[in-house]
Amino acid sequence: MKQILQSLKTGETEVAEIPCPVVMHRQVLIRSTVSLVSVGTERMLVEFGKAGWIEKAHQQPDKVRMVLDKIKTDGLMPTVETVFNKLDQPLPLGYCNVGVVMETGSGVSGFAPGDRVASNGKHAEVVSVPANLCARIPPLVSDEEAAFTVIGAIALQGIRLVQPTLGEAVVVTGLGLIGLVAVQLLRAHGCRVLGIDLDAEKLALAREFGAEVVNLAAGEDPVAAAQAFARGRGVDAVLITASTKSNAPVHQAALMSRKRGRIVLVGVTGLELSRADFFEKELTFQVSCSYGPGRYDTNYEEKGQDYPVGYVRWTEQRNFEAVLDMLSDGRLNVQPLISHRFPIDASEDAYALIGGAEPALGILLRYPTPAEKPEVEVRRTSVRLAGSHAAAGAAALGFIGSGNYATAVLIPAFKATGARLKVVASNGGVSGLHAGRKYGFEASTTDTDSIFADPQVNAVVITTRHDSHAALVCQALAAGKHVFVEKPLAMNHEELAAIEQAHAIAVATGRSLVVMVGFNRRFSPQVQKIRSLLEGTRGPKAFVMTVNAGAIPSEHWTQDLAVGGGRIIGEGCHFIDLLRFLAGVEITAHHSVRLQAATADTVTIQLAFADGSIGTIHYFANGSKSYPKERLEVFAAGRVLQLDNFRKLTGFGWPGFTKMNLWRQDKGQRNCAGMFVNVVEKGGFTPIPLAEVLEVSRISIEVAANLR
């Protein structure tokens, strides 16, 4: 199927052939009929992509500060690689989609195949959208009209925050698509409306919709015009739907408002506010968040947890429905807003239009009908790529998951081994296509099961969200595939037992399969050096591992106990494994304590080993980003070793050893991948014994449970 992607590096758009997405839990799979280009938002994205590096940095000062912090902790080159990797990822465009339901995922009610729906789906022939971001289209509303649903909901949410009452005087600054829809919705509320813009054609449309207007291009004074419009009392409210870097719209809104007037920002403007403007009139200022309550709330959008209507009358989905009702009743007219129509194959012409001088307002993209393109064609879940085949006998890898970590670190590490990159899978198709193109995979797919069924794939690399790891490991073992799984191996004891049983069944049937977890710290050259130095000492050792992990919001998926398992299971296991490797003997006891906070990710873990050694892991989320992220200290036989960020190893009191410095931090991951590929191809010694992997995983699970 075809989808529009944009490069953040160059600003170029393309119509890419990608695998059809799979319908997920609580999602709806939709075949698109038409979608609307949001000219303001999408022009901004295209212009950002086409900007030079200096201009990009100027537009994103917060991101620049994050980059500078990362340089302090990780070094210049790893940070540069991370930034380039992020900008290299294609951005799916669009959020105003109309189509027909093809399939519904588990947990979905209220939708059925054949329903016409409006959603915030992308510009693609098929989209998979959370059910709470879809609304059924009334019979009297055409697909083209319904394409304005999301734009209408953005305008409507801004109006709800304004809280207009019958007869009030309201100003709309910026008469693009959202502004012109807002004019009509405010008129439907019984308000008198004054529209402000520079474009004569948009002003004419606003006047047609019942507004009085101010033409800034003609030199008209918006403040004076607003005061006259409000009969000298000041306007009751101002809705700012403009997109500009200037502070003028907010300043002018304050000047034209009455005492205790309301100002709501829907668009993007400069926000250097004058205290005097707001203080003297006791004005209220609020920024509207997209389509309404529920936006960016994972529980609402992804997990389908609706807000009770008795407490939250208007959610983003119910705003969609309200806009569709207005279209059905004829109180909202969007036909005059349509300026251009393009087939999806000509979308590059559409984006050239929004970046050019020709006037454009509502640009619609049309998609092939079932008669023009059969469903079997749009539902293809695999796309062949131009990847090169490795020599016969090489490890043939199937990657499941192609997120940020996979594309930035894991896939490059495996590519460096010379393994055959056979196929990469992703749920949505876009990230898998990008990874496949960039690293030379032979195919990209959204059908994970096809990887297990492929006889040419002899090893599977799992890098998905944590709650899927154990089931995928068991599936791979049952299919006779070697497994490399990113940590964690499992989320609970039941999953560990299932993996152990699946491996035992494979062994019993004569298949010597490797299960390896991405515990890459133990494969770092500096850690290997520490291990070799410790082998020459006698007596127990003391280890202190300090991890300046940094804060992750409680709503992030890694903090969700059901999905990510929390940070100790998700990342703390790395350091339990590291100390287990350096001690070289079993962990006999553990104890942990946490800082009392919203998330259990500032903790101290104490380990005792069978040879009398002890270890302490300080995993802290409350430190400064300017401090090194990971520091290991080893005390043994009157000597000390100190390792900072896996780049600088220093010895104190070690005969013949003082320091070992490396420029790159990812050597451990590359070594880890290399050892896995080597054992897949040649057999022999397992890089990490399964018993050790299970031991570390079990202790991580127990520590996490103790901290809750």
TrEMBL record:
Residues 59-361 form the Enoyl reductase (ER) domain. Signal peptide: none annotated. One of its GO terms (molecular function) is oxidoreductase activity. InterPro entries: ADH-like_C, ER, Gfo/Idh/MocA-like_OxRdtase_N, GFO_IDH_MocA-like_dom, GroES-like_sf, NAD(P)-bd_dom_sf. It comes from the Bacteria. The keyword Oxidoreductase applies. Its cofactor is Zn(2+). Coiled coil: none annotated. SMART domains: PKS_ER (SM00829). The keyword Zinc applies. Belongs to the zinc-containing alcohol dehydrogenase family. This is Putative zinc-binding dehydrogenase. It comes from Candidatus Accumulibacter phosphatis.
